[in-house]
Automatic annotation (TrEMBL):
<feature type="domain" description="BPL/LPL catalytic">
    <location>
        <begin position="33"/>
        <end position="209"/>
    </location>
</feature>
<feature type="binding site">
    <location>
        <begin position="156"/>
        <end position="158"/>
    </location>
    <ligand>
        <name>substrate</name>
    </ligand>
</feature>
<protein>
    <recommendedName>
        <fullName>Octanoyltransferase</fullName>
        <ecNumber>2.3.1.181</ecNumber>
    </recommendedName>
</protein>
<dbReference type="InterPro" id="IPR045864">
    <property type="entry name" value="aa-tRNA-synth_II/BPL/LPL"/>
</dbReference>
<comment type="function">
    <text>Catalyzes the transfer of endogenously produced octanoic acid from octanoyl-acyl-carrier-protein onto the lipoyl domains of lipoate-dependent enzymes. Lipoyl-ACP can also act as a substrate although octanoyl-ACP is likely to be the physiological substrate.</text>
</comment>
<keyword id="KW-0963">Cytoplasm</keyword>
<dbReference type="InterPro" id="IPR020605">
    <property type="entry name" value="Octanoyltransferase_CS"/>
</dbReference>
<feature type="binding site">
    <location>
        <begin position="71"/>
        <end position="78"/>
    </location>
    <ligand>
        <name>substrate</name>
    </ligand>
</feature>
<comment type="similarity">
    <text>Belongs to the LipB family.</text>
</comment>
<dbReference type="GO" id="GO:0005737">
    <property type="term" value="C:cytoplasm"/>
</dbReference>
<dbReference type="InterPro" id="IPR004143">
    <property type="entry name" value="BPL_LPL_catalytic"/>
</dbReference>
<feature type="site" description="Lowers pKa of active site Cys">
    <location>
        <position position="140"/>
    </location>
</feature>
<dbReference type="InterPro" id="IPR000544">
    <property type="entry name" value="Octanoyltransferase"/>
</dbReference>
<feature type="active site" description="Acyl-thioester intermediate">
    <location>
        <position position="174"/>
    </location>
</feature>
<keyword id="KW-0012">Acyltransferase</keyword>
<dbReference type="GO" id="GO:0033819">
    <property type="term" value="F:lipoyl(octanoyl) transferase activity"/>
</dbReference>
<dbReference type="GO" id="GO:0009249">
    <property type="term" value="P:protein lipoylation"/>
</dbReference>
Length: 209
């Protein structure tokens, strides 16, 4: 999808490092004013990525390699069945990173609501959460990790659709030890694929502005 103010690219399954290189290329073009704001919506083969605040104890127990990246936040997993979004957007002046994160959260909350999954925010923790109602822990359904350079965003969000949640048992997701992880499929008791979620996310991207 392309409009006068936003281009949305859907490249499918993309190696994480290749997508990172493409983000950096797009970021330079957007920051230079050579192309409009752009959002990549894709999936990755299984990969662990660690933000700048990751602790050694958060890493996978089995020694699986981790890609260190320059975003905020800690460690997370990306893989098939998870929709990953990389908005490359010029933020308005003065740049307010917290306000941008809140807009990303709201977009994810609205997308989940459209599928009938009630989510919200947790104080002091980014992302979209299914709040505990049965005495168990809150469950994270979408992660956020961003960077802003030259007033333009990098990295972004990941929404668990029908991914294998066992991957999150191999490390400390986002460095948080007292919460769980869930997906749209797990909450609804039916498969909810990336292909089903992708157009809904695309329709809600205007919230990011």
């Amino acid at each position: 999808m392309t409009t006068s103010v936003l281009t949305v690219l859907r490249p499918g399954l993309v190696d994480y490092r290749d997508a990172w290189d493409e983000q950096k290329r797009l970021h330079e073009a957007v920051a230079d004013g050579d192309r409009p704001d752009t959002v990549l919506l894709l999936e990755h083969p299984s990969v662990f990525t660690a933000g700048k605040r990751t602790e050694p104890a958060d890493h996978p127990w089995d020694g699986t390699p981790v890609v260190d990246v320059d975003r905020g936040g800690k460690i997370t997993w990306h893989g098939p069945g998870q929709l990953v979004g990389y908005p490359i957007l010029k933020l308005p002046d003065p740049v307010d990173v917290v306000a941008y994160v809140r807009r990303v959260e709201q977009m994810l909350i609205d997308v989940c609501a459209e599928f009938g999954v009630a989510t919200g925010r947790v104080e002091g923790r980014s992302g979209a959460w299914v709040r505990a109602t049965d005495g168990g822990p809150d469950r994270k359904i979408a992660q956020i990790g961003i960077r802003v350079a030259r007033g333009v965003t990098l990295h972004g969000f990941a929404l668990n659709c029908d991914c294998d949640l066992a991957n999150f048992d191999r490390f400390v997701p986002c460095g948080i030890r007292d919460a769980g992880v869930t997906s749209l499929s797990a909450e609804l008791g039916r498969p909810v694929t990336v292909a089903e979620v992708l157009p809904v996310v695309e329709r809600h991207l205007t919230t990011l502005f």
